[in-house]
């Protein structure tokens, strides 16, 4: 069985290291051209890792370019992983490996197809989320499921914690599934489309507090869009207040000295960690 990998971010590199940790190997890796990597936030270079592991690395500008597809075919790849890659793989890429293309999505599919999986899991007040390894098809997160790893959520879970848990779950899932792929012992199961939900993308301005809304929703918003996301905020008196951590308080006397307190229709929210800066036109 021959394996390929497409990535340009740390999570993808961590998953590749997990493959080698369980005694696997990669026959081909595709990543971004160096000049594109320099322009992309969070990107990593893979050259050193693959020098150590004697694997071939091919740099491309687009995964759908004929050169990328030819490399997959030339190396006779059976399974191709695509993890941490923003370009959508079209049918020519999906059909290039002998057995198919595998992705990982940070929800328990068919729940949460689409975007912004980590913020939405918190905003929706879910009791658990997770990651799903699945075979890619031409839909959006619609392909058959190979394996899943659940992540419990609590009323205190924030985006930073969940982001780290999702990363760890990717690695655990890879270590569990890769030997089964090598042995040909996987049986992907179709998703139950009647249970599917789709989550839309989110923009930084979606982090604005609704001051006429509930304090419970505001506190949840803070947890959902805290670092590494842009944060929850309010503009007032010519300044933007960005709140990274907060707590619901009974009254203003309960808040610490100097801590901003925001008043909602049903309660008060005290900022515990925040930034404040002038708004520039």
Walk me through this protein's architecture:
- Helix 1 (10-21) crosses helix 7 and helix 6 (117-123) packs antiparallel against helix 8 (215-225).
- A seven-stranded mixed sheet has the order 3-2-1-4-5-7-8, sandwiched between helices. A four-stranded antiparallel sheet has the order 10-11-13-12, covered by helices on one side. Strands 6-9 form a two-stranded parallel sheet.
- Strand 1, helix 1 and strand 2 form a beta-alpha-beta unit.
- The protein contains eight helices and 13 strands.
- The longest helix is centred in the middle third of the chain and has 25 residues, at 159-183.
- 28% of the residues lie in helices and 27% in strands.
- The model has no long low-confidence stretch (mean pLDDT 93).
- The chain is α/β, with parallel strands linked by helices.
- The radius of gyration is 22 Å and the shape is elongated.
- It has two domains: 3-199, Formyl transferase, N-terminal domain (Rossmann fold, 3-Layer(aba) Sandwich), CATH 3.40.50; 204-278, Roll (Methionyl-tRNA Fmet Formyltransferase, Chain A, domain 2).
Content-based structural category: alpha/beta
The helix tally amounts to: 8
- The rounded distance between the terminal residues' Cα atoms is 58 Å
* CATH topology value of the largest domain: Rossmann fold
CATH architecture descriptor text of the largest domain: 3-Layer(aba) Sandwich
CATH class of the largest domain: Alpha Beta
The overall pLDDT, averaged over residues, is: 93
Find the CATH superfamily of the largest domain.
Formyl transferase, N-terminal domain
The strands making up the biggest β-sheet line up spatially as 3-2-1-4-5-7-8
SSE order in H/E notation?
EHEHHEHEHEEHEEHEHEEEE
Apparent shape: elongated
Major sheet: 7 strands, mixed
* Number of separate domains: 2
**Secondary structure: helix percent:** 25-40%
Number of strands: 13
Low-pLDDT parts are none
Strand content: 25-35%
Q: Give me the Rg, rounded.
A: 22 Å
């Amino acid at each position: 069985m021959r394996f390929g990998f497409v990535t340009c971010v740390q999570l993808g590199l961590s998953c590749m290291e997990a493959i080698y940790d369980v005694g696997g190997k990669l026959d081909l890796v595709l990543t971004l051209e160096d000049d594109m990597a320099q322009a992309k936030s969070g990107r990593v270079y893979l050259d050193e890792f693959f020098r150590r592991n004697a694997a071939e690395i091919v740099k491309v500008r687009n995964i759908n370019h004929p050169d990328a597809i030819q490399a997959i075919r030339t190396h006779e790849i059976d399974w191709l992983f695509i993890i941490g890659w923003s370009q959508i793989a079209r049918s020519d890429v999906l059909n290039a490996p002998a057995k198919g293309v595998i992705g990982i999505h940070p929800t328990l599919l068919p729940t949460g197809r689409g975007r912004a999986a980590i913020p939405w899991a918190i905003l929706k007040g879910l009791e658990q989320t997770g990651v799903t390894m699945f075979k890619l098809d031409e839909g959006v997160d619609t392909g058959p499921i190979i394996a899943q790893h659940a992540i419990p959520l609590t009323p205190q879970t924030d985006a930073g914690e969940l982001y780290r848990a999702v990363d760890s779950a990717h690695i655990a899932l890879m270590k569990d599934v890769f030997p089964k792929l090598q042995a040909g012992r996987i049986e992907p199961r179709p998703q139950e489309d009647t249970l599917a939900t789709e989550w839309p993308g989110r923009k930084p301005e979606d982090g604005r507090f609704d001051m006429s809304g509930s304090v419970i929703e505001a506190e949840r918003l803070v947890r959902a869009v805290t670092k590494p996301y842009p944060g929850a905020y309010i503009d007032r008196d010519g300044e933007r207040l960005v709140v990274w951590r907060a707590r619901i308080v009974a009254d203003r006397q309960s808040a610490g000295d100097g801590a901003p307190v925001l008043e909602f229709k049903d309660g008060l929210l005290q900022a515990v960690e925040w930034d404040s800066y002038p708004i520039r036109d």
